[in-house]
């Protein structure tokens, strides 16, 4: 599979088995133009895709992840915690937001201890909360980039200053 990260700066993956929840998120997310949004109905399909996608680690990757998954035979598949553990093992910098039902809130604390950034309820405010988190993660990424640029500029300035002082010192002793 080719690298899909060359033209996108934000990757959003919705890993959720409830088609209504997926549709609401996919239609309601407000993202910049250079974004890729892709949905998966099972953790297995996402875990198969993710390592092959070869997204550069410096890109912002956000996963909205459900907790409970089952197939047509109503057999349990990988749950959200297992998917979260696998994703964090593959790329610890990935942002994961757990999507929970009323009966699943107790998993939120455990998910956060495993590396999830946040948990949101699958209710009427889900899309609003998801968009707020997207804006938060984008601004954090932008701030990190600015800090990195500032460090590079400071080092460059110091190198130029040292070179100048050395050239002045050499000309004084000549």
Strand order of the largest sheet: 2-1-3-4-5
The total count of helices amounts to 5
Return the CATH architecture: 3-Layer(aba) Sandwich
CATH class: Alpha Beta
Based on Cα principal axes, name the global outline.
elongated
In terms of per-residue confidence, which ranges show pLDDT below 50 for 5 or more consecutive residues?
Answer: none
What's the short story on this structure?
The protein is 49% helix and 17% strand.
Describe this structure in words.
By secondary structure, this protein is α/β, with parallel strands linked by helices. It has a single domain, classed as 3-Layer(aba) Sandwich (Rossmann fold). Helix content is 49%, strand content 17%. It contains five helices and five strands; from the N terminus they run E-H-E-H-E-H-E-H-E-H. It has helices at residues 19-28, 43-53, 80-90, 107-113, 126-172; strands spanning 10-15, 35-40, 60-66, 95-100, 118-121. It has a five-stranded parallel beta sheet, with helices on both faces. Helix 1 (19-28) links the parallel strand 1 (10-15) and strand 2. Helix 2 (43-53) runs parallel beside helix 3 (80-90). The longest helix has 47 residues, at 126-172. The radius of gyration is 22 Å and the shape is elongated. The mean pLDDT is 86.
């Amino acid at each position: 599979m080719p690298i899909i990260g060359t033209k996108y700066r934000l990757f959003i993956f919705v890993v959720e088995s409830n088609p209504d929840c997926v549709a609401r998120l996919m239609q309601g997310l407000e993202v910049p133009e250079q974004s890729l949004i892709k949905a998966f109905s099972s953790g297995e399909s996402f875990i198969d895709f993710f390592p092959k996608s070869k997204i550069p680690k410096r890109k912002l990757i956000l996963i909205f992840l459900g907790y409970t998954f089952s197939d047509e035979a109503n057999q349990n598949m990988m749950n959200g915690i297992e998917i979260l553990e696998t994703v964090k093992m593959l790329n610890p910098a990935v942002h994961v937001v757990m999507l929970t039902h009323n009966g699943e809130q107790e998993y939120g604390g455990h998910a956060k201890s495993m590396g999830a950034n946040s948990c949101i309820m699958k209710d009427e405010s889900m899309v609003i909360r998801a968009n707020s988190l997207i804006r938060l993660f984008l601004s954090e990424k932008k701030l990190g980039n600015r800090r990195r640029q500032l460090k590079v500029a400071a080092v460059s300035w110091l190198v130029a200053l040292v070179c100048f002082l050395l050239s002045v010192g050499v000309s004084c002793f000549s």
